[in-house]
Amino acid sequence: MAYTITDECIGCGACAAECPVGAISEGDGKYVINADACIDCGACAGACPVDAPKGE
Ligand code: SF4
Ligand code: SF4
Prior knowledge:
By secondary structure, this protein is of the alpha+beta class. The chain has 2 helices and 4 strands; from the N terminus they run βαββαβ. The protein has helices at residues 14-18, 43-47; strands spanning 4-5, 24-26, 31-33, 53-54.
């Protein structure tokens, strides 16, 4: 399963810069992960200041 970004996201963009497959983009009020591209590496969770990306 892909990671997802919760509503805790403050839109800083740090996760998008760290994603090795470019799966994260700016969405409506928060960043979103393309589930088809995500390889479950967890880099986004490590980069996020508010712990918004969640794995399964
Ligand atoms: Fe990108 Fe890895 Fe986060 Fe998936 S888990 S969105 S591949 S940084
Ligand atoms: Fe949102 Fe966290 Fe990504 Fe920043 S690093 S855009 S707060 S999910």
